Amino acid sequence: MQQSINIGCFIFVKYLITKTMETSKSVRNIINAVKYKYGHPDIDNQKLCSLELKDGSIYFITLFRKRNFAKIDGLAIKNILVEDATTFEKRVTIARLALVGIFAFGIKKKQKNEIAYLTLEWNNAGFDHSTIIEFNGFNALNHANKTRNKILKEIKSFEQIV
To answer: I want to staple 58 with a disulfide (CB 3.0 to 4.6 A). Which of 1, 15, 65, 72 is the partner?
Structure first.
């Protein structure tokens, strides 16, 4: 009888520890105050939001209502790029090339911004997407890089489970 009570207590304590670890993990995997720029088929406007990393996916959540409004399946991600604003702005786009022709390669941007971009290249239902997330403020590039690393860790940990 005493042994079954001890086993029951052990199982209950293990359950509480597991739940606490799951809760603390989900708290650690929220990236607050990022700006969604463009590139997700389910989001029409630029908006300030948070990212939640769970179940191997990236969830875009509203800042105040804390509800999901878009998702990127982590296994669909093909590449994640981190760039500062000057590198991002220097990229020669097709539109810029069409606008100024060969001179697009010579046009330089002069201003240095405390902005970093995280580009998620992913595929959904046969369509390729490049979703851009902006980080502003002090140490923005470092914040974007840490977010990239958190995303990679979340995807790797989910792949090990599956």
So the answer is: 72
CATH number for region 29-161: 2.30.29.30
- The pLDDT of residue 152 is 92
Report d(CA 88, CA 118) in Å as an integer. 10
pTM, entire model? 0.66
For residue 38, give the nearest of 119, 142, 122, 154 by alpha carbon: 119
Q: How confident is the model at residue 104 (pLDDT cuts 50, 70, 90)?
A: low
pLDDT at 90: 62
Q: How many Cα atoms are found within 13 Å in the side-chain-facing hemisphere of 19?
A: 6
Domain residue spans of the chain: 29-161
Q: For residue 112, what are the CA distances in angstroms to 43, 89, 103, 106, 116?
A: 29, 10, 21, 18, 11
